[in-house]
Amino acid sequence: HSHLLELLRRTTVHGESNSALIIGPRGSGKSALLNHVLKDLREMNQVRENLLENPFLSGLLQTNDKVALKEITRQLQLENVVGDKVFGSFAENLAFLLEALRRGNRTSSCPILFVLDEFDLFVHHKNQTLLYNLFDISQSAQTPVTVIGLTCRQDILELLEKRVKSRFSHRQIYLMNSFDFKEYLKIFKAQLSLPDEFPDEAFAQKWNNNVQHLSEDKAVQDVLQKLFQHTKDLRSLHLLLV
């Protein structure tokens, strides 16, 4: 969390460009980590003056580079800037979009964070053009751009083309669900308990006591133990609780 927060803070405040991959099994909290960091980042005073644009792309939806570029244009609200312009190449189009985000005096640009969910699916795009151009921009000092990829594939670097790999910063953050059953029970209680600021204090106390008794119940523990041995994915626990 602190590593990622510092990375994005440097992009926003000092205009540094970076790239990083968050790697971990499904349900290990990759998106949760990123959302948490972005929330903390937006609460910093320095960041508020220099707001971060944040296009979010998913490999499941943006199945080729053309669709991805359209989505970037839509999310950065630059449709009116592009209009009917015709571009020779993908790189020219992307460079034009980023140029359009420069401030009026042309000296400083708006920092941009590209989030690529299901990063491994972008690797299968033709010639990896999108990845090449994004990493290339994050290496050059034109626009402060940080590219964060989320993936569950451990061998992701092996899939990158040589030219793409050479432009990637090789920062990797690994997430693993390595808690034991005791902690799993704590998570179970935390998900069901009412917070201290709940308006009806007496009700909240009664409710939380019941949750405590529930977590000590043998039958409940057996069910949780079975799920825990099957998967530590917290989304499965949420589904069970629902």
TrEMBL record:
It is found in: Nucleus. SUPFAM superfamilies: P-loop containing nucleoside triphosphate hydrolases (SSF52540). One of its GO terms (biological process) is DNA replication initiation. It holds the Pfam family ORC4_C. One of its GO terms (molecular function) is DNA replication origin binding. Its main location: nucleus. Keywords: ATP-binding, DNA replication, DNA-binding, Nucleotide-binding, Nucleus. Residues 186-241 form the Origin recognition complex subunit 4 C-terminal domain. Signal peptide: none annotated. It comes from the Eukaryota. Residues 3-148 form the Orc1-like AAA ATPase domain. InterPro entries: AAA_16 (IPR041664), ORC4 (IPR016527), ORC4_C (IPR032705), P-loop_NTPase (IPR027417). The keyword Nucleotide-binding applies. GO terms for cellular component: cytoplasm; nuclear origin of replication recognition complex. Gene3D superfamilies: P-loop containing nucleotide triphosphate hydrolases. Belongs to the ORC4 family. This is Origin recognition complex subunit 4. The lineage of its organism: Eukaryota, Metazoa, Chordata, Craniata, Vertebrata.
